[in-house]
Design a protein that fits this description.
Elements: E1 4-7, E2 21-24, H1 25-29, H2 33-44, E3 52-57, H3 63-76, E4 81-89, H4 92-101, E5 106-110, E6 122-128, H5 137-149, E7 152-155, E8 167-171, E9 174-179, H6 183-192, H7 195-203, E10 208-211, H8 217-228, E11 236-237, H9 258-264, E12 272-276, E13 283-287, E14 290-292, H10 294-304, E15 317-321, H11 327-335, E16 338-342, H12 347-354, E17 360-363, E18 367-370, H13 378-392, H14 396-407, E19 409-420, H15 422-439, E20 443-444, E21 447-454, E22 457-458, E23 465-466, E24 471-475, E25 479-485, E26 493-503, H16 513-516, H17 518-528, H18 530-534, E27 541-542
Parallel strand pairs: 3-4, 3-5, 4-9, 10-11, 10-12, 15-16, 15-17
Antiparallel strand pairs: 1-7, 2-6, 5-6, 8-9, 12-13, 13-14, 17-18, 19-26, 19-27, 20-21, 21-24, 22-23, 24-25, 25-26
Helix pairs in contact: 2-3, 2-5, 7-13, 10-11
The structure holds 1-O-phosphono-alpha-D-glucopyranose and zinc ion (ZN).
Zinc ion is lined by residues 113-114, 277-279, 281-282.
């Protein structure tokens, strides 16, 4: 088959962010936009010749078209084999697992995660490397450089490949293997958890609702929860992946998974509620009448992980992203294991996991995972919760309350200010940076500032340094406010303000976290001069 070199010119703005390249779908549909990025990636990894790759996505609009383009370009670039999920479907953690299982050279994952899908919504693509994790910063920088100098891309002229049936097809010299997207992921889960114990839990009348939000985890959750573990039919709702996620926002949090939240706070609540996002790497856990914050969930999973077969030997260490609450640090301290604070985004956990320094990682944005893959993993977190519940035979609420009594409680909330004018958002961050050296000792909203700095990360494994990762302000009495700009927003700037207040074991118990966070919030508004710089202090989303 002849390889075509199609001429192209650089396209502005192909800068990969914390999770690959994310843009409006129509941008990706412009001629040669996707092609430029894919070719730049091949150029940055030293070409495709002889390589084996995994390709799949979350099923959103343009997923199938993008996969066809990538397959033809892979053949054009000399790739020898691509393993692709049937129907173009692979959750992000399943893709990470397939890369590792097949010792592939990497993979392309098509997703804009929890962002809405559709022709007028978002699309994305990211490249994961040999370890199954998101490309490290050195590689994304190389890809970006390549997008600026590109002159052409390689492809083969061919008709579309049938992705609907599993099996093997040839595209010129390249072999394409279409696999069931769930099978090997499910097999991996069976090695990690006590399926017999969870099966017994369901057989004993334990009830659950899993909201797949019309996104990629539907088939995974149905196969594992209902078919393998015996949860009643109908446990999984919105289980059919749709190109527009049923016009929803597939982000598992109390705002976007409101129907699930409402159910869990009602008299009809099952024992546990859970949800996952567009590409299956995020999770939400809700007990009957109790929402578990992602920061608390990370800490609770870490404290109880030894109850599941895969972690019975204990954990090597725990890592959390900087804005995530300190709850998991307290668990690491009690267990006498290492705890690590990394910049936002999963790619920083990869080195720690590869080096065996940590076993479990998590982010406040509903991402939790372990060394079984190199991505966060929504269903994994749900299954670990189920395994813990099956062993402890207590309710979610009892486990959470018990955790707070042992470790103290870290009240936590995140405020998102979306579509802020980019210059105003920058002004706010610059203003904060300029004030850092004089903040300590000042009092705002009755709180005295103890520490103020901008987070910079020295990677303990490869020695790389990542600067400007967010402004942190610590207050006397265990409060903290963090400001950072999102790397995944697709419109204007998204300013995130993370609030935290520790109340030690035996401290005052507030049922509403916002009450406990009031002073930290007011101090954060005052210090950042938020009203004056961005013209508002009311966030678009509070989680
Ligand atoms: C957001 C989350 C971050 C997560 C990323 C990808 O990034 O905050 O924790 O890793 O999505 O899912 P942000 O928009 O804040 O840069
Ligand atoms: Zn995601």
């Amino acid at each position: 088959m002849t390889i075509e070199l199609i001429q192209t010119t650089p396209i502005e703005g192909q800068m990969p962010g914390t999770s690959g390249l994310r843009k409006k779908t129509r941008v990706f549909m412009e001629p040669t936009y996707l092609e430029n990025f894919i070719q730049a990636t091949f150029d940055a990894i030293g070409g495709g010749a002889g390589k084996r790759l995994i390709v799949g996505g979350d099923g959103r609009f343009f997923n199938r078209d993008a996969i066809q383009t990538i397959l033809k370009m892979a053949a054009g670039n000399g790739v020898v084999e691509v393993i692709v999920g049937q129907g173009g479907i692979l959750s992000t953690p399943a893709a990470s697992h397939l890369i590792r299982l097949n010792k592939a050279d990497g993979g392309f994952i098509l997703s804009a995660s929890h962002n809405p899908g559709g022709i007028d919504e978002d699309f994305g693509v990211k490249f994961n490397g040999q370890n199954g994790g998101p490309a490290p910063e050195q590689l994304t920088a190389k890809i970006f450089e390549a997008t600026k100098t590109i002159t052409g891309f390689k492809t083969v002229p061919a008709s579309d490949i049938d992705l609907n049936a599993t099996g093997t097809v040839q595209l010129g010299e390249m072999k394409i293997t279409v696999v069931d997207p769930v099978e090997s992921y499910q097999a991996l889960m069976e090695t990690l958890f006590d399926f017999a114990a969870i099966r017994a839990l369901f057989a004993g009348g334990f009830t659950m609702r899993f909201d797949a939000m019309h996104a990629v985890t539907g088939p995974y959750a149905t196969a594992i929860l209902e078919n393998a573990l015996g949860a009643p039919d109908g446990t999984v709702v919105n289980g059919k992946p749709l190109e527009d996620f049923g016009k929803g926002h597939p982000d598992p949090n109390p705002i976007w998974a409101k129907p699930l939240m409402d159910l869990m706070m009602s008299d009809a609540a099952p024992d546990i509620g859970a949800a996952s996002d567009g590409d299956g790497d995020r999770n939400m856990i809700v007990g009957r009448g109790v929402y578990v914050t992602p920061s608390d969930s990370l800490a609770i999973l870490a404290a109880n992980a030894h109850l599941a077969p895969a972690y019975k030997g204990g954990l090597a260490g725990i890592a959390r992203s900087m804005p995530t609450s300190a709850a998991s640090d307290r668990v690491a301290e009690k267990l006498g294991i290492g705890s690590y604070e990394t910049p936002t985004g999963w790619k920083f956990f990869g080195n720690l996991l590869d080096a065996g320094k940590v076993t479990i990682c998590g982010e406040e944005s509903a991402g939790t995972g372990s060394n079984h893959v190199r991505e966060k993993d929504g269903l994994w977190a749900v299954l670990l919760w189920l395994n813990i519940l099956a062993v402890r035979k207590q309710s979610v609420a009892q486990i959470v309350t018990d955790h707070w009594q042992t470790y103290g409680r870290d009240y936590y909330s995140r405020f998102d200010f979306e579509d802020v004018a980019i210059n105003q958002a920058n002004e706010l961050m610059q203003g904060l940076r300029a004030s850092l050296s004089s903040l300590a000792g000042q009092t705002h909203a009755g709180l005295s500032v103890a520490t103020a700095d901008e987070f910079s990360y020295d990677d303990p494994v490869d020695g790389s340094v990542s600067k400007n990762q967010g402004v942190r302000i610590g207050f006397e009495g265990g409060g903290r406010a963090v400001f950072r700009l999102s790397g995944t927003g697709t419109q204007g700037a998204t300013l995130r303000l993370y609030l935290e207040q520790y109340s030690g074991a035996g401290g005052e118990i507030h049922t509403d976290p916002q009450t406990a966070l009031q002073n930290v919030r007011d101090a954060a508004f005052a210090i950042s001069k938020m009203q004056a710089t961005i013209g508002r202090t009311t966030p678009d989303v509070i989680t």
